[in-house]
Every structure is written in structure tokens, then in C-alpha cells.
Amino acid sequence: MDRTAWIAVILCVIGLVAWEWWVAKQTPRPRPPTSAQLSPTPTPLAGTSPSAVPLTASSPPSAATGTPAPEAIPAFAEKIETLRNDDVELRLTNRGGGIREAVLLNHIGQGGDRLVINSKDQSPIGAMVEQPNSPKFDEFTLIREADGSLRCERAAENVTIRKKFFFPPGKEKKDNFLAEMDVDLVNAGAQPYSNPGYFVALGAAVPIHPKDYSYYTRLVWCVDGKAKGVDVGWFGGGGGVFGIGQHAPQPFYQQDLANADWAAVSDQFFTTLIAPLTAKGNGVWGRRFDISPEQKTYGLAGALRMPAFQLPPGQTYSAKFEIWAGPKIYHRLARLDHNEAEIMDFGVFKIVSQFLLNFLNWLHGFIGSYGWSILALTAIIKIVLWPLQDKANRSMRRMSLLNPKIQELREKYKDDPTRMNQEVMRLYKDYGINPVGGCLPMMIQIPIFFGLFKMLGQAVELRNAHFFWVHDLSQPDTVATLPLLGYSIPINIIPLCMAATQIWLMAMTPKTGDATQRRVMMFTPLIFLFICYNFAAALALYYTTQNLFSIVQFYYNKRQPLPTLEKRVPAGKRK
């Protein structure tokens, strides 16, 4: 390879290391939990009784590592009451006074049943515990109010806890997936009550599909409008890249925060997000649990920590929380007041992803099919970039005409690479050719490609969207499986079409550069096929359609007159 190729390789390695460093920096290291954090107890005020009643009881961790102890079987029968609107049914339980399950009435899960967020085996959403690592949920009384809301109440000695769940009235800024939990804690005793801080359970998130990527299942929090998080793969440890991001397996995650706007557990398309309205959160907690260890499938439970408070006799502590339990619909989350749309995790090219998602939904409003809307979006992008691509194609054709002269210089100065590169650059300058002119449209398409990748990977609108043989544009378009050496190899049609069109496109592209570079470029379609083979069908559909439009444009350019090579006259020699 020549010097340019080596520089490109080195820059790619540097870029990879920089990316891993950035990802590691975005995931803050949890501070090692103290013994007080592992087993907290209420701290009474000076001069008060040490037997102040906690919000709920906790059982001790089963080991010094903080491994969760199994919850004892409750001594009371579980009771369920429901809150329901057109989009969601919230099933509240007397076990901890929270939401056991949120049933999404218009979304289908695996097996054709309605999709359910959270599980009866995990902490109820909105349950308040002193230590989520070892919770014990007490019995609440469920009372349906005249206005349709549900009240959960528990009295213990001199402290009474009341929680009210309801759907907020008004539709101008609210949403059917949004519920509110109002908490009142009344000190009816004669002594002050002090609470060292408590956790509000976020429930749990599990993969939507058996082979989902681990980075979709995440614990996320937002501080000052910026979201950060850890995915379920973090708990298993990792060596990182060149030691960057290396850490040992962890039983749970616990992180102190300053003024958290919200915290959430999230899978690829759905989330449970809790935003405190009366005080900011000051910490998050998360734990991985097994679903299928053989297939390395795990879920993630989380909780948001709230600040300590002190309550004199006869006074009431009040707190309000908004709970979003539903799909990650960007334009609806963006209407909320606490940067909830940051749960989408669009990454570096967030602006591109947001624009493309809004534009795709706008096209869908006219066309009515997300498959055809993706084709229309691709066509519009190609039309906008047509003049730039046209200029790049002309530049590559001129480069191909110059290629024989470049080969002569390579042969002439093959023993002096420095002189060879100087002469090649002088040749480019003499004929007024920009050697990277053909790469400029590709550079512009990089943010579009990655923006689409991040957007299509989380666009719940594409889930279960049909297009010809594709039953779900958010998943690979597998039409059959091929048994091979004990494995089932999926047959995905659109990625194969993508690779074929890319090979076709490369065969039409004028040959530039040396033979080594051309041989390396021949493997590009196979690399893209390997990377994109199991990605969402929508992404492969976009890239295949873009290749077809590029082929049409190359045919158009080939019909144009062949460019001529003319040396530029230096300014000092012009008459």
C-alpha cells in the first residue's frame, strides 16, 4: 500500500480508539457502595426515637457483594385493580402499591398477545423501597376514587403512605401513555420522622426479540438535558479495546447523580420512564437478571433514588411523579417537559436522526406505507445530492483518464515513494483534478447512513410494518433458514440484494488508484453484507435503493461526452 492508504488505516485505528474512549467516558464508573448503601436504615432526628418507621421494609443482602436476596413469599393474597384508556391498561397491585404490568392495547408482542411492560416477577413500577437490591413489598389497600383514579394506602405505626395513580387530564401536552403518581406521607405521631432517602422502582425491561442486541436493553438517566446510561451487557464485564472501558463483572450498578430529570429502563422500542416533578433525583440503581442464560438473554431492573427528607409531627411530605409506560414515539416524547425524547439515544448524529424520523413520518402520512415511504425518502435524498454526485462522477472519469500517467510515475519512482507521491500530486495540480473529489459525496452520506441506522433501529413506527414479503421492517427479512454444521443460517433477501447492487455499482465505477487499493475495495460489498446482514430490513432497503439510484446516475453520466484532459496554464505564463 502507498502512503495514503497507510494514513487511512492509521486514521481508522485512531478513530476506533477515540470512539471507545468516548463511549467509556459516556458511561460513568459507579462509586463502590458503602455498607450504609447496601443496608440503609432510617436516621432519626436529634432527640427523636430511633424506631422511626421506614417507607417499606428491606431484607439484608445475601452476600457482601450485594447479591439480591430472594424475596420472601408475601403473607397476603395479591389483589389487582386497573386503570385503562384507549392505549394502555395499568394493572396496579397491593404488593408494594405500584404498577405490576402495563398492557399496551395496540401493540402486539411475541406469540400474538398484547405487549406487556414489566412483569409480576419484578418490582412494581412506582413502588418505594429503601434498598432496591433487597426489597420486601408490604401490603397496600387499593381504593378506587370517584374520579376514576386509584389510591394505594398503607398505615404503619405513626406513618401513613398514600399514593394516587391517574391519567392527567388535558390533551394539549399530555399523552395516553403518561400517568401520574402523587405521594403523600403523613406523620401522625408525636415524634419527628427522618428518611435517609428512598428509591422509586422503574420496573424492568427485557428484550423484545430473542436475538436482540444487548445494547438495546438499558438503564438510562437524564441530567441537565443530557441522557446517559448503561446497557445490560455492562454487568457481564468486558476487556474494552486496548484496555479502554475495561471492567470486571458487577452484581449491580449504583451511581450518585446531581439533579436527575428522569430515569428509565428501556428496550429497543419501549420504555418505562419516571420523572419526579417536585424534586430532582440524586441517584440510579440497576441490576441484570437472567431470562435465558444459555442464549445469553438478560433483562434489566432499575430504580431512581430520591433525596432524604425530614417530617415534623403532624406534617405531610408530598411528591409527584410522571410515569411514561409505552413505546418510544419520538414526536410524542418531544412534547413532554423534561427532555424525555433523549431516551431515543440517537447518538452523535442526533439532529440527522430526528430530522429523518420526522420526515419519514410526514411521508407516511401521505403514502400510508412505511416501505414505500423509505423508498420515497431515499429518492428525495438522492435528488438533493444529485448535483454533488454528478460532479464527483465527472471527477472520477477524469481520474480514470489520468490513471495511465499515474502508473508511469509509479513505475518510474517505485524506489522512491516520497518522490513518487510528490510527482503524483504535481500531476493532479497540473490537470486541475481533486484526488478526493469522488469521495466527497460518500463523506456527506456518512452522517445520513449512521443517522438512519440509529433512527431505524429504534423507530417503533416500523415495528410490524409490512412491505411485500417483509413482515416487520424493524427486523431482518428472514424468509427461510439453512441448516449448516448444526447451525441455522437465516436467508435474508434484501441484504443479498444490497450486496449485489453494490458489486454492480463498483463494476461501473471508473478504476482509479493502484491495483492493491482496487483489490481492497473489491471486498467492500462483502464487508457491508457481513455488517448489515442481520440489521433491520428498513436499513438494508434504504441502502439497496440508494445503490439502484446511483447505478441509474452512472448510466446517465456514461451517456455524456467523455471529459478531456488539459493542463492548466500557470497564472504567470498567461498572456
Keywords:
four-stranded antiparallel β-sheet; 2 domains; elongated; 13-stranded antiparallel β-sheet; Beta-galactosidase, Chain A, domain 5; alpha+beta
Counting DSSP E segments of at least 2 residues, the number of strands comes to 21
Q: Count of helices?
A: 11
| Termini gap | 42 Å
Largest sheet: 13 strands, antiparallel
**What is the assembly state of the chains in this entry?**
single chain
* CATH fold description of the largest domain: Beta-galactosidase, Chain A, domain 5
Question: Fraction of residues in helices?
Answer: 25-40%
**Coarse morphology:** elongated
Query: Radius of gyration from the CA trace?
Result: 30 Å
Taken together, the total number of domains comes to: 2
CATH architecture of the largest domain: Distorted Sandwich
| Strand proportion | 25-35%
User: Roughly what is the average pLDDT, rounded to an integer?
Assistant: 78
The CATH top-level class label of the largest domain: Mainly Beta
Estimated structural class: alpha+beta
Low-confidence runs: 1-9, 19-27, 29-53, 57-70
Tell me what the structure shows.
- The chain is of the alpha+beta class.
- It folds into two domains: 31-345, Distorted Sandwich (Beta-galactosidase, Chain A, domain 5); 364-403 and 435-558, no CATH class.
- Helix content is 32%, strand content 26%.
- The protein has helices spanning 3-26, 35-38, 330-333, 350-367, 370-412, 417-431, 440-458, 493-508, 515-522, 524-532, 537-558; strands at 80-84, 88-93, 98-108, 114-117, 128-129, 141-144, 150-156, 159-166, 178-187, 193-195, 198-205, 218-223, 226-231, 253-266, 270-276, 281-292, 297-306, 309-311, 316-327, 478-484, 487-492.
- Residues 1-9, 19-27, 29-53 and 57-70 have low confidence and may be disordered.
